[in-house]
Amino acid sequence: MRAFMTFENRTARRLALTGGVAAAALLLAACGGSDGDSMAGMDHGGRATTSATASADGSEQGNGTFNDADVMFAQMMIPHHEQALEMAKLAGTRAQDPGIRKIVGDIEKAQDPEIRKMRSWLKSWGRPESMGGGHSMGGMMTDQEMKDLAAAKGKAFDRKFAELMIAHHEGAVSMAKTEQQSGGDPEAKRVADDVVRTQTAEIDRLKQILARL
Fold first, then answer.
1. pTM
2. HEC assignment per residue over 71-135
3. Which of 138, 152, 188, 204 is a Cys-bridge partner for 157, taking CB atoms 3.0 to 4.6 Å apart?
């Protein structure tokens, strides 16, 4: 009877160990995923999360550790840039001054790629493109201001465009400086650096144009 009990106990222990190994294997498979990703990109409720996603050209977008400031920067700058492109589009058939036309071309060249880049960040971070209500963006034009700009032509358009775009750029520079100070993602901060540098220079050019119109 004692031998039978010993054999039974050994069998029970062996079955328990086998079950434990199988459970551990299932847990690792669930956490690891089929593509071998680590858990570094998972947000466990903290403010900062690691993310690195390759773009179509092989470069990495939104690398490093991003935080709430990075997310807000992208969510606010996308519609801000979109409005600047709307203003630039109006200039195509209305602007007269060569300096205004040159700045319009520069805006289109810089801001459309930046919009695509920021959308790729938000996608890789698992964040929505829209930030919802409760946040204001400096320099954004009202519907009436956009209608007034659309109604102007020639020199009147150039003057109004310069005035509105100066305010618009100042708002973008302010948001970019906040990202420089509070952001965590290196790529997002590099874009913020570009916004501050290029749009500050364009503000100076617009003021010079406005002075001679």
1. 0.70
2. HHHHHHHHHHHHHHHHHHHHHHHHCCCHHHHHHHHHHHHHHHHHHHHHHHHHHHHCCCCCCCCCC
3. 152
